[in-house]
Amino acid sequence: MGNLTHLSIALDGPAGSGKSSVAKQLANELNIHYLDTGAMYRAVAFAALEKGIDPKDAATVESLLKATSITVHFEQGNQRVYIDDIDVTANIRTSAVSNAASDIAMHPSVRYKLAEMQRAVASQYDIVVDGRDIGTFVLPEAEYKFFLTASEEVRAKRRFKENKENGIPSELEDLRMEIKQRDYNDTHRELAPLKQAEDAIKIDSSDLTLEEVVGAIMSYVKGGQQS
Ligand code: C5P
Hints:
- The chain has about 230 residues and is of the alpha/beta class.
- The protein has 9 helices and 8 strands.
- The chain has helices spanning about 20-30, 35-50, 60-65, 95-105, 110-120, 135-140, 150-165, 170-190, 210-225; strands at about 10, 35, 70-75, 80-85, 85, 125-130, 145-150, 200-205.
- Helix 1 crosses helix 9, helix 2 packs across helix 4 (about 95-105) and helix 4 packs parallel to helix 8 (about 170-190).
- The longest helix is centred in the C-terminal third of the chain and has 17 residues, at about 170-190.
- It is globular and about 50 Å long.
- It starts with 7 loop residues before the first strand and ends with a helix.
- The mean pLDDT is about 95.
- The structure holds cytidine-5'-monophosphate.
- Cytidine-5'-monophosphate binds next to helix 2, helix 4 and helix 8.
- Cytidine-5'-monophosphate binds near residues 38, 42, 105 and 186.
């Protein structure tokens, strides 16, 4: 288990693969923390958009990062993300922020800073951490690693349903394009691209319910079958 003194479960996969719902339920059943690393990239993206900064402009984003404090707190077990002491958790789920987060996530300065924060959080708790590079870059020593996938069609439909439930207006075709573009960005960036870790267990959730995915992961975790 390397130098990690707490239980760490890394859960990686592309946008809409169901990671956050799975991670939430898993954390609940195991009574451990859940760190949503995408929310951290989204918070930086939100800050950039608020300040009129182009998320693709590496130098300006780096200056923003230096001048801004990003923090993660757990309140009654739920993660909240703050930018300079302002809770932005409720503001980071729009498509504009999703797309900007995908651009922001390409910059190594952003990735190094957020990965360091993620490691610091993981060192304090038993935790499930979801993202794109957790098993490969952030926590390569994680005790359990899972890579969650689903077809593009299924992922777009899930996002559509999720948005509807959250009152966020969207078109299915737009979400499909958005997912395609984010997949491309995530798999083609130089530092820590989205990739299955060699020792991760792959789960295709296209035809599985949330309960089935969680059940499959629980059987590995309880049975101690990995690492
Ligand atoms: O998971 P979520 O959709 O909230 O992530 C938002 C964006 O943040 C992703 O499209 C991805 O580009 C980026 N991200 C990342 N590495 C992570 C988590 C998210 O690059 N560990």
